[in-house]
Design a protein that fits this description.
Helix content: 25-40%
Shape: globular
CATH architecture: 3-Layer(aba) Sandwich
GO molecular function, one term: hydrolase activity
CATH class: Alpha Beta
Number of strands: 6
Domain Isochorismatase-like: 4-163
Structural class: alpha/beta
Largest sheet: 6 strands, parallel
InterPro entries: Isochorismatase-like_dom, Isochorismatase-like_hydrls, Isochorismatase-like_sf
Organism: Ventrimonas faecis
Oligomer: single chain
EC number: 3.-.-.-
Length: 169
């Protein structure tokens, strides 16, 4: 069985920085334990990094969310130090969902954790479900945080409606 853990955007800016939240900080120990579980089994672990350029405020996203964050190469763009580990893969994605998952190979089980549940986690979960309809796509709600608790819950419900397994609530 082939398993992969995708850790969505657990970057300084989303945990302790310009878009950080107490909910994002609260899930860090859970995400650490999840990464250790996958690493101990020798499973594949992929981190995504929300990646913007200096002109972020001039982009369509920047105009709707005028908070500078995750500028490539800055401290805010880095994965939080508590989660960094050797042997993981990194994907720099310029928007909410990564459209190149087709090039990362086939997996029987794909689990997603991270932030923000209602933006990047749900976007990638839906893209993966569309690309790999026979794979088990799951999200551990206890390892995710949304922009608000209400939006987190709404995103979990959306994923359940789309046959993504949601657990850990």
């Amino acid at each position: 069985m082939s398993r992969v853990l995708i850790v969505i955007d657990m970057q300084n800016d989303f945990v302790t920085g310009s878009l950080g939240s107490k909910e994002a900080r609260a899930i860090v120990p859970n995400v650490q334990a999840k990464i250790k579980e996958y690493a101990d089994r020798g499973d594949r672990i992929i981190f995504t990094r929300d990646t913007h350029e200096e002109n972020y405020l001039d982009t369509a996203e920047g105009k709707k969310l005028p908070v500078i964050h995750c500028i490539k190469g800055t401290d805010g763009w880095q994965i939080i130090p508590e989660l960094e580990m050797e042997g993981c893969e990194y994907i720099d994605k310029p928007t909410f969902g990564w459209l190149n998952w087709g090039g990362f190979g086939e997996h029987d089980e794909i689990e997603l954790v991270g932030v923000c549940t209602d933006i990047c986690v749900v976007s990638n979960a839906l893209i993966l479900k569309a690309m790999y309809p026979e794979a088990v796509i799951s999200v551990d709600a206890g390892c995710c945080a949304g922009v608000t608790p209400e939006k987190h819950e709404a995103a979990l419900e959306t994923m359940k409606s789309c046959q993504i397994d949601v657990w850990g609530e």
